[in-house]
Amino acid sequence: MARRSSRRRRRMRTTTTVPENAYLAAGALARAFHDYDTAADWGLALTRGGGVIDARRRRINAALLPLVEKAKAGAQLIALVGDAYAGERQSGAREKLRSTERGACCGTRGGACGS
């Protein structure tokens, strides 16, 4: 009996809805923008099928890359990521984020803890 229920759970996990895919993709993008400081850090490379691969074999997100491949939106994703980092440089948003994160480590604002 336990065997049947684990198969069912496995099958349910692999079947996602459109809204669920949107949340997975949004989460993957948010995580990558947080973790990587430049577009080049993502290590994205265009595939023949119009998707992208993680050329550095770091796991950007297992949910995002198949969705990009299916939509043949690899070139668009690479361009949008590059544009986002260009805008970020102009606004100073990444520096502000890092400063806030450093300050949060010791309870001070503006990175006074020196880390």
Describe it.
By secondary structure, this protein is mainly α. The protein has helices at 2-14, 18-35, 39-42, 64-71, 74-91, 93-104; strands spanning 44-46, 52-54. It has a two-stranded antiparallel ribbon with strand order 1-2. Strand 1 (44-46) and strand 2 form a beta hairpin. The longest helix has 18 residues, at 18-35. The protein is globular, with a radius of gyration of 18 Å. The model is unreliable at 8-13 (pLDDT under 50).
Overview features:
115 residues, mainly alpha, two-stranded antiparallel sheet, 6 helices, 2 strands, 63% helix, globular
Q: What's the gyration radius in Å?
A: 18 Å
Q: Structural class, from helix and strand content?
A: mainly alpha
The rounded distance between the terminal residues' Cα atoms is 53 Å
Largest sheet: 2 strands, antiparallel
Count of helical segments? 6
Give the H and E element order: HHHEEHHH
What average pLDDT do the residues reach?
Answer: 78
How much of the polypeptide forms β-strand, as a percent range?
A: 5-15%
Q: What overall form do the CA principal axes indicate?
A: globular
| Strand line-up across the major sheet | 1-2
Number of strands: 2
Poorly predicted spans: 8-13
Fraction of residues in helices? 55-70%
